[in-house]
Amino acid sequence: MPETTSRDGVQIDLISGERMEGMASMEKVRMILDNVRDGDIIILEDGLTPEEESRLIEATMSQIDPDGFNGIEIETYPKPENTSSGLLGRLMGSDDTSKLTVIGPANQIETLHKDETIISALVSGN
Amino acid sequence: MGLITGIKESVSRVTDRLFTSPDPKRIGIYGPPNAGKTTLANRIARDWTGDAVGPESHIPHETRRARQKENVTIERNGTAVSIDIVDTPGVATKVDYEDFLEFDLEEDDAIRRSREATEGVAEAMHWLREDIEGVIYVLDATEDPFTQVNTMLVGIIESRELPVLIFANKIDLEEANVSRVEDAFPQHETVPLSALEGDNMDEVYDKIAEYFG
Fold first, then answer.
1. Digit-coded pLDDT (tens) for A25-80
2. Which of A41, B70, B83, B166 is exposed most, by the fewest CB atoms within 10 A?
3. Please, which residues bridge with residue A101 across strands?
4. Per-residue pLDDT of chain B (213 residues; tens, 9 = 90+)
5. How far apart are CA B91 and CA B89, in angstroms?
6. Ordered domains of chain B (ranges, CATH)
7. Residue A70: its chain B contacts at CB < 8 A?
8. What is the DSSP string of A86-100?
9. Cβ pair B158:A50 closer than 8 A
10. Chain B neighbours among A 76-95 (CB < 8 Å)?
11. Interhelix angle for B148-159 vs A50-63, to 10°?
């Protein structure tokens, strides 16, 4: 991820499916956790496979520290088949069926709520 | 003599294979913390072996190590089904030791409990990927089942093509809403029960025999 100069705010990284495509499962997990531990919110265009989600939970647990990082909040959205009308679809020209995924640090995301058409996050600063 | 002995041994091996029941399937009891997994594991183990699996508590993450009860033989309709029950720690994506302070734990105890809980969750995920052959997914029917942890875990179980039963637990409580659990996972069979009170255990055992036998 490109470094930002200030950590006063909350960094949101919108990561394309293309960027994730060539990465091994553990590379994805490592990249997500490194960024979330830095306080970033990650939005994955294509989400993770169930196997990768399992490894993400396992790796998250190994990094929890009572003095700091206490885990992740995560929500996913399956993208409808054969449509590219969503915001990310328009931004990134994608119309696949994988799931949009939002991941952030549990100690900064006060609420992460999903209903049928929206994932909404209330995020506190660092 | 040697030839006859050899033939006898061969016949014995074939008949053993034909008439001995297959190895018990290892069935994992999964679900979020405080859904009643250990209460269910103890109920099943006590009903069929007389022993318990582990201690129960209202404090989340009481089970912090996967515990196995081997060779639990459930008899239904004249046939016997043997399973190994694996009671797993509740799965979560976050563990905050401060949450345990609300249950009057000292800070050192809360920190130790949170450390053990994280190891337990990781262990539960490892079991699911490597060793589990069927899953009983336990949900507290008084709680919202539409959570990301539930969605992810059921997705992981489905991706491994494991047989799965959803158990809507705590139906003895007035706030229990079984139809909400059924709506959350319509692709799977939901069985209502109270592991604590022993309600609807006949159907529970029928379904375990049907799915995992």
1. 999 999 999 999 999 999 999 999 999 999 999 999 999 998 889 999 998 887 65
2. B70
3. A44, A76
4. 566 766 666 666 555 544 445 688 999 999 999 999 999 999 999 999 988 888 888 888 888 888 899 999 999 988 899 999 999 999 999 999 888 888 888 999 999 999 999 999 999 999 999 999 999 999 999 999 999 999 999 999 999 999 999 999 999 999 999 999 999 999 999 999 999 999 999 999 999 999 998
5. 6
6. 23-212 (3.40.50.300)
7. 94-97
8. SHHHHHHT---S-EE
9. yes
10. 76
11. 130
Cβ atoms within 10 A of the Cβ of B160, count? 16
Q: Which residues of A touch B121 (CB under 8 A)?
A: 57-58, 61
DSSP calls for B141-164: TTS----HHHHHHHHHHHHTT--E
Q: Are B163 and B134 in contact (CB under 8 A)?
A: yes
Q: Specify the DSSP element, H or E, that contains B26.
A: strand B25-30
Q: How far is CA B8 from CA A83, B13, B14, B15, B21, in A?
A: 67, 9, 10, 11, 21
